[in-house]
């Protein structure tokens, strides 16, 4: 056994360690990509959902809200608002009522602006939020009140 910790030993540990973890990283990335088709809810990716996503972006909803954890933390997470507010039966009615009622104007409560969107646009946004809520995220967000 070498008595000294040589430069070449240090280099081998650095190179070997890096290679080992790069291989793990590549393996996990490939595993994620392989699982995507079964998990990303692509079978429900309709024209209306795509239109809803565009409205979501154009109106900068993510400037206040998060979606599946990404975004701002001023307002509630919306990746699970579909389940939180009625699901299949009542969500669309809740959503349209909510959007049309803004701003609520309750003192001391954080306010959301009025976007003046058409009925058709509200339908598309609701479809987009429903679509997002059915992506298999391993149970994220962990809390229904998000
Ligand atoms: C300026 C910040 C802001 C922006 C931009 C914004 N919201 Fe909100 N939103 C809020 C706040 C604050 C609340 C919570 C208000 C409350 O509880 O009275 C809220 C609540 C909601 C809720 C109800 C959530 C729940 O759990 O019941 C929905 C749905 C919603 N927003 C959708 C949207 C959509 C869709 C957009 C983009 C078109 C948007 N918001 C843009 C601030 C914002």
TrEMBL record:
<dbReference type="Pfam" id="PF00034">
    <property type="entry name" value="Cytochrom_C"/>
</dbReference>
<dbReference type="GO" id="GO:0016491">
    <property type="term" value="F:oxidoreductase activity"/>
</dbReference>
<keyword id="KW-0560">Oxidoreductase</keyword>
<keyword id="KW-0349">Heme</keyword>
<dbReference type="GO" id="GO:0046872">
    <property type="term" value="F:metal ion binding"/>
</dbReference>
<feature type="domain" description="Cytochrome c">
    <location>
        <begin position="47"/>
        <end position="133"/>
    </location>
</feature>
<dbReference type="GO" id="GO:0020037">
    <property type="term" value="F:heme binding"/>
</dbReference>
<keyword id="KW-0479">Metal-binding</keyword>
<dbReference type="GO" id="GO:0009055">
    <property type="term" value="F:electron transfer activity"/>
</dbReference>
<keyword id="KW-0408">Iron</keyword>
<protein>
    <submittedName>
        <fullName>Nitric-oxide reductase, C subunit</fullName>
        <ecNumber>1.7.99.7</ecNumber>
    </submittedName>
</protein>
<dbReference type="InterPro" id="IPR036909">
    <property type="entry name" value="Cyt_c-like_dom_sf"/>
</dbReference>
<dbReference type="InterPro" id="IPR009056">
    <property type="entry name" value="Cyt_c-like_dom"/>
</dbReference>
